[in-house]
Every structure is written in structure tokens, then in C-alpha cells.
Amino acid sequence: MTASRLRMPQTLALLFLLMATELVATWVVPQGSFETELDEAGREVALPGTFEIAPDRQLLGPWELFTAVPRAFGAAQDIIFFLFIIGGVLAVIRSTGTVDALLGSLLRRFGHRPGTLIFTVVLAFAAASSAMGASGEYIPFVLILAALCRAMRMDPMTAVGMIVAGYGIGYGVAAFNPYTVVVAQGIADVPTYSGWEVRVGLLIPFVVIGAHHVHTYAGKVRADPSASLLFGVESPDAAEPEGDRPALGAGHIAVITGFVLALGFAVWGIATRGWYLTELGAAFLVLGVFAAAIGRLGPSETATVFVRGARDLTETALLVGVARGIALVMEDGQILHTIVHGLSVPLMHVGPEVAAVGMLGIQAALNLFIPSGSGQAFVTMPLMAPLGDLVGVTRQVSVLAYQFGDGFANMLVPTNAVLMGILGMAGIPYDRWFRFCLPLFFKLLLAAAAVMVGAVTFGFS
């Protein structure tokens, strides 16, 4: 068989093949469900001990596979339209020369210290995710960091590695994340934010693991460009000219200040007003108008540049929509609760240390089917918390298993819309990302398993 026949499909084709695979799985795996009830906040949670196989199987046909695609686009519309807005606004900002000037400044500061840059970026993103659950907010940084890495003789994989490692680690050892920690501890009947001291203490060791992985890869690429996993892959802005870049002027500083203020304003709204991508997109639209005014771009030129930038992210938007379709097929096929039940039964027959590690593995596996952190908490924590009681695992440790599994799997599963958006913006095929991230995923899981055993041994509660 020739090498060409062994190549992975294009990412969009791969995601559709995964959807088709899940459809076939719904024909084989028994359909079943747990009973559910509404909690005090009006959220639907599963009830332990109530799982039943459905008496009549309702098969999904090929037609449902295709109707799932437009439905998935509707379900993922917030992040899809956010991507179009970000692409347009960043194109406007680039047309002002601000990005080139900023890259020149960063190169003068970090050009000969890639290790410092990598650790700083991973730590910053991890801290933001740990404290406030930041994820989609990182998308505007992708193209800027990718251009910076190319200028430092690295590649876009390094840039995305910094962002996603920080994102995944921040969620995995989150101290105060309102979308995961608060929800999971509430469902498990654990005091809100309890155990934060331990999780804060774990942040730096896990960041070191992530930064070391990215730095080792970046070092190989700097020494030999052909060692890049993206060697031969055309990426956005790959032909960007090198050479002297302009110094930061007053106009550039004004645009950068506007960027920081827009992001800060949106983050404040997310933390205090319940905002998310709609308001974040609005904040960046205001930023685009401001940048156009500073750069003295006329209305027609601004609109032309904006459309061109949004158009460049069409493939990325398609990836996000189809990725959401994978989970949608699982939900329609009513096999998600069957998988959760089947994975949890063996834990009843092992010791607490093995059970704790098993919980971690289950949560990581389930992230493929439930990429939403809070959604995964609603499905699994009502089951895992009482199961932990039976096998000698404290509820705090059960929550920690959920955090590790959800956070670290966020970096790898193709059903994660934020991940697919980031990869699409950087022009990284999913199979290349999988090769880069899988070793990091296993390193983090191994460290997390050691932490789980220690948590059980010392009675973390």
C-alpha cells in the first residue's frame, strides 16, 4: 500500500467520519438512561442507581446523520460567529501595522529566550483558566503568537501548544473555575472552593510539564525546521515577510491598549454579569471600529478588510460546527448514559486507589462525548460522588478526578469546539495536532494518577 493511501483524511472529512462511526455505535450499544431531576438551580442531573435499558430501540438512520450537521451548526453558532468577528477584527488591526510593530517589540525581548516566552505564556493562560474558566477568550491570540513563533524560527504548532497546554492544565487543576469547580463541588455536596490550596499548589508542577513538552518540541524545530510536524503544510500567513519591523508608535500603543481594555471589559462581564461569546464578540467589534479610526481606514476599506479576514476563517467555522455534530449524534442515539454506566460498574470491584485512578480515566474518556465541562459535571458527578462513597474515595477526590479528566482531555478531543477553532485559525490539521498532543496528554494523566493515589492515601477532603 502506498504512503498516500495511508495519509489521514483532511480534518473536516475526519470529523464527519467520526460522526458516521458514532451513528453506527448507536446501532450496537444498548440504549438506556438514568432518571433525572432538577436541582436547586434548575439544572437537570442524573440520579444514581436508576439506570435502565430502553425497552424499544429507536434506530437513527443515515438521514439523521446529515440532519445532525445543520443542527450542530445551530448549536455551535455562538462560537462560529465569534470566529468570524475575530477574523475580521484582527485583519483590521493587522492593516494598521500594529501587529508587525508588536511582534518586533516581542522579538527584541524574547527572541533569544524562547524558553522564557513558552513558560510565561503557558503559565498565564493556565492561571486565567484556573481562576475564571477562560477558554474561547484565547482565540484572538492564535494568529499573533503563531506569527511570533515563525519569526523566532519555531512553528505555529509551538504557538498552539502554548495556548492549549495552558488552557487544558488550567482547567485540569482549576482552583476557582466557575464552570467546573463550582458546578462539580455543588453537585457532589462539597463546600464551594474547598481544597483550593491543594489545587493552587499543583498548578506550577503541571505547568512545568506542559511548558517542558512544548519547549522540547520547539528546540527540535529551531535546530532543524524539517522536524516540524507541520513541515510541508501550508499555514495562514506562512509567507509573511521577515526583516526589520516598525517600532511601536503612539497609534500602535493606542490599538494595543484598546485590545487589552476590550478583553478586560469582556472578562469582567463574564465574571460578574454572566456574559460570554456574544458580548465578547461585541467588545471586539467596538475594538475593530476603534482600530480603524486610529489607523485612518475609511468605512469601505475597513469593511473590505473585515470581510477578507472573516472569509479566511470559513474552514475553521465548518470544523467547529461538524465537531459539535459528533456529540449530537451520541445524544440522539441515547447511548451516552449506557456508556457512563458501563464504565463505572468495574470500579465497584477494586480498591480505593485504583478506583480513583479509574474515575480519572472514565472522566477523560467521557470528554469525547461530553466536551462541555459543566455538562459533563451534570451527567457524571451525581453518579461518581456516591460511587466514591462506596469504594472509599472522598467526594473531594471524586471532584478532582473529574477536573483532571475534563481539563486534560480538552486538549485532545476533536469534539471540543474551542480546540478545533484554535487549530483551524493556526492552519493545523487535527492528525498533526494529535501526534503533538498525545504524548503530553499521557504525561499529564500519569502525573494526575500519581496525585490521585496520593489524595486517597492522605484523605484529601
What's the structural blueprint in terms of helices and strands?
Blueprint: H1 3-6, H2 11-28, E1 32-33, E2 36-38, E3 44-46, E4 52-53, H3 62-75, H4 77-95, H5 98-110, H6 114-132, H7 142-151, H8 156-172, H9 181-187, H10 196-223, H11 250-272, H12 277-294, H13 299-311, H14 314-332, H15 336-344, H16 352-366, H17 373-391, H18 395-409, H19 417-426, H20 430-457
Antiparallel strand pairs: 1-4, 2-3
Helix pairs in contact: 2-14, 3-14, 4-12, 4-13, 4-14, 5-7, 5-11, 6-8, 6-10, 7-8, 8-10, 8-18, 8-19, 10-20, 11-12, 14-19, 15-16, 16-17, 16-18, 16-20, 17-18, 18-20
Task: Characterize the structure shown.
By secondary structure, the protein is mainly alpha-helical. It has one domain. The chain is 69% helix and 2% strand. The chain contains 20 helices and four strands. The strands form two sheets. The chain has a two-stranded antiparallel sheet with strand order 1-4. A hairpin with a 5-residue loop joins β2 and β3. It is globular, with a radius of gyration of 23 Å. The chain starts with a helix and ends with a helix. The N terminus is likely disordered.
Number of helices: 20
Mean pLDDT: 85
Helix vs. strand class: mainly alpha
Q: Unreliable stretches, pLDDT < 50, 5 or more residues?
A: 1-6, 238-243
The biggest beta sheet reads: 2 strands, antiparallel
> What is the overall silhouette?
globular
Radius of gyration: 23 Å
Q: Summarize this, please?
A:
The protein is 69% helix and 2% strand. It has 461 residues and is an all-alpha fold.
Quickly list its features.
461 residues, mainly alpha, two-stranded antiparallel sheet, 4 strands, globular
